[in-house]
Amino acid sequence: MIFTRRDALKTAIFATGATLAAPAIMRHAALGADPIKIAGIHDASGGLDTYGLPMIACLDYAVDEINASGGLLGREVLLKNYDPQSNIQLYTQFATEAATKEKVAVVHGGITSASREAIRPILKKFNTLYFYNTQYEGGVCDRNEFSTGSTPAQNVNKLVPYVLKNWGKKVYVIAADYNYGQITSKWIAKYTREGGGEVLATEFFPLDVTNFGPLISKIQAAKPDAVISALVGGAHVSFYRQWAASGMKKQIPLASTTFGGGNESVVLSPEEGDGIVSAFSYFQEVDTPENKAFLEGFHKKLGDKAPYLGAELAMRTYIGVKLWAEGVKRAKSVDRMEVIKALESGISMDTPAGKTTLDAKTHHTTVDVFLATCSNHGFKVIETFPQQPPADTASVCDLIAHPNENKQYIVDIKI
Question: What is the mean pLDDT of the chain?
């Protein structure tokens, strides 16, 4: 079913006749001859399309809502989507094109931290505002960028204590081998140690690895009380399948900082996925009036093409667009610095994911965090933690005091 939805959404996204490597214009002038151009750069194909397609759907839907309500400043918002095909070179190419040729007011884009760090300096160089709407490892301090997704102090800080309390103190960590996995594994170790636990081992895997047989044998020999995964992407879904097939799923429980962000719960069978615990700032199953209203409109608009939104990434993309739009309204302009100042003025809004507040010092968000367990191709929320601040990034970043900062800090994590 996920492949049918994926194919249908791809058809809708690229109906303009553009190739997968080329931008697809998503909007046509309706409110005037001088639209506000914005761009999205998300993987609609390649190994990360399982994350990208729902993000594109929510980006498209947010722009639809804005235009249906009269646009911004009396102008239509014209969205151009680029498909980088999970290729960093295309990320840089499209970021450059969006900033220089199209002269967009803002870019919403990037999935992995590697893609973010490829396009962030380009957009900074060309003075193009950037929104990164993905859960990540924290630490980016750049006045030109706003990060709307959750960070380890918000999600890992809730996941690890649950594991230690309910499953035991001995933990085995497996993670993607790039900065998200490497840094997040340190946060897992930090919170494990603080909770009186022990990390028996940490293993890293490139994004294209699909054979996890040797790893499973190592875990079986180590006999941990729990496994915590920070794996990423379509290839790494193989681990969950192989884990269940080996019979280990019935013996050792599994938690993850990433499971659900790429609709793994839909791709896997209930036998393979049920019982895996995750923590994010949104799950489609969040039971609030705002989320119910959003989902009703989203499914009414997209029908059978509506993807399952899973955890966080797609919803944070929707919220990122709405935050940017509010900044434009307050600034009464699309001028980059005027919008940045407006966004730093204390914007807070009720969203389908709960209250979201932009932090002026870090350009990150204070969010509700939800702990949930995978159940029958979806999730069951088991605990809610209201209004969690981005404390990790706040410990190293103050853009009010130092507005010219432009780097990713690696928080000193003593483990």
Answer: 91
